[in-house]
Amino acid sequence: MSRLHMKRKDYPLHVTHGYEIDAKEMIDFCRFLQKGDESAEEALAQISNERRPLVNYGALVLEKVLKASKCKSVVMSALGVREGLLFSQLKPSERNTDPLLTAAHELSLLRSRSPRHGDELCDWTDHFFKTFDPKETADERRLRHAACLLADIGWRAHPDYRGEQSLNLIAHGAFIGIDHPGRVFLALAIYHRHEGVSESGLSPRLASLADERVRQRAKILGLAMRVAYPISAAMPGVLPRTPLYVRKGKLKLELPVDMEDLSSKRVLTRLGRLGKFIDLSAVLEITG
144-147: which pairs have CB atoms within 8 A and are 24 or more residues apart? Predict the structure, then answer.
């Protein structure tokens, strides 16, 4: 039913898990499916022959459940009894791990140049956002960490397509523990990590699934990553020594004197663009 609803709305993200529908809207859709008229039959034609006879009954049951429960919305899950049984057999320590961050770590191991660099990028952006955005919530921090772990998964692609390919891989990935606006944040952050503030390769309808704060944070994180990567070349051990932070109304990047040669025009340009985007003057400081 969720796939039918997406099709009817021409929803831009074809991912069932985390798809949320207003309860009243879903009740109306359930009634539509039960009508049996030509428009309903046309919609049902997209369902396999084996499942089609069950949709009307499912719609009737869901309508009654929604009316009785008086809930505000319906959130779809791609997981069911089978996954629940497997989950129940895990050790308590495994059940308590964050499914999104675990999946991001696994994808980083498979596709990035250095998974350890992804962990360092989490800490590096922690320091920056702590000084720039002290009102960052725990969930926003969690999503930022997931984005840092996924930041380098597109490095093998041609440079002209890294942003687009990373966005598609993340937006349509088999992640759980995340809603659709969060999924869009991850995809946009990595897109902007490769493309800067440009939105020429973005679907406006996909971006519209997240609010303005989410979209702005994705750009800021992406621009910060664009500073991090030419310094570190995705290798571990560099970012812990090159902090980025906001102090006294200025955006500062520190380089130790033995890394002074990393102060390239490219780094300075990207630092300046981040500063301009957040309305702060940018300074690169060489420290002894």
Answer: 144/189, 144/217, 144/221, 145/101, 145/104, 146/100, 146/101, 146/104, 146/178, 146/186, 147/185, 147/186, 147/189, 147/190, 147/218, 147/221
Q: What is the pLDDT of residues 103-150, one digit of tens each?
A: 999 999 999 999 999 999 999 999 999 999 999 999 999 999 999 999
Residue 45 has pLDDT above 80, yes or no: no
Closest CA to 177 of 139, 136, 121: 139
- Torsion angle of the four alpha carbons 160, 161, 167, 170, in this order, in degrees rounded to the nearest 10: -130
pLDDT band at 53 (very low <50, low <70, confident <90, very high): confident
Residue 288 CA: distances (Å) to CA of 229, 245, 255, 257, 268? 22, 18, 9, 5, 19
Instruction: Mark out the alpha helices in the chain (DSSP H runs).
Output: 2-9, 23-35, 38-44, 52-69, 81-88, 92-95, 99-111, 115-132, 138-150, 162-171, 180-195, 204-207, 212-232, 265-277
Structure token pair of residue 142:
């969690």
Q: For residue 128, which of 10, 254, 265 has the smallest C-alpha distance?
A: 254
The SS3 call for residue 283 is: strand
Q: Against a cut of 0.85, is the pTM above it?
A: yes
Looking up tokens 């396999």 gives 48
- Residue range 241-276, pLDDT digits in tens: 999 999 999 999 999 999 999 999 999 999 999 999
Residue that the structure tokens 């869901």 belong to? 62
DSSP state of 74: E
Q: Is 238 helix (H, G, I), strand (E, B) or coil?
A: coil
